[in-house]
Amino acid sequence: MFEYEAIKEASVQGKKIQRTALIIGGSILFAIFVGLLVWWIIKKLKGNDLVDQSKKDVNKRNLTYDLSKYEQMASAIYKAMEYLTTDEDTIYRNIDMLRNADDWKQLVVAFGVKDDKNLVEYLIYELDSDEQSNLNAILSKTGESI
Q1: How far is CA 116 from CA 29, 61, 89, 125, 127, in A?
Q2: Which of 66, 116, 122, 135 is the most exposed place for a label (fewest CB within 10 A)?
Q3: What is the rounded CA–CA span in Å between residue 109 and residue 103?
Q4: What's the pLDDT tens digit per position in 65-121?
């Protein structure tokens, strides 16, 4: 009889431990979910500082091209970075068309935010350090850099 009681008590204790482990595990997962949700909401509400600042700072009277041209350039640059390989020549060619800081700011605005990255973040992500240096050399005539 004693062995039966001991086995029964061990079974009850095992079930209590399982229940406690499930509660703790569920609580941890819930806390992670809530944390990620809060981070995502804050990120969406905050917007993108570079894009927002560029919108405020760009002087449209100094733009070299009409606004649709910047949209075309932004689209070409995004497509150059969209797939497995990056088409650096397309990026360089489009950036080389910029003549001043306002052109750069308007390109940043036209690019906007794609995949949670603005133009500078995308370029830094896609280009290695030598390519970033080449791009900064091209951008230097505008007084800007990535």
Answers
A1: 24, 30, 24, 12, 17
A2: 66
A3: 10
A4: 999 999 999 999 999 998 889 999 999 999 999 999 999 999 999 999 998 899 999
Reduced to 3 states (helix: H, G, I; strand: E, B; else coil), residue 117 is strand
Quote the tokens at residue 137. 């050399």
- The CA distance from 104 to 94, in Å, is 11
Element (DSSP H or E) covering residue 83: none
76: closest CA among 22, 34, 122? 122
Would you call 85 helix, strand, or coil by DSSP? coil
pLDDT in tens, 16-50: 888 888 889 888 989 899 888 887 776 666 667 88
In the block, tokens 């896609």 appear at: 126
Q: Rounded to an integer, what distance in angstroms lies between the CA atom of residue 134 and that of residue 88? A: 10
**Residue whose entry in the numeric block shows the structure tokens 């497509």:** 79
pTM of the model: 0.69
Hey, is 114 helix, strand or coil?
strand
**Dihedral (CA of 109, 115, 120, 122) sign:** negative
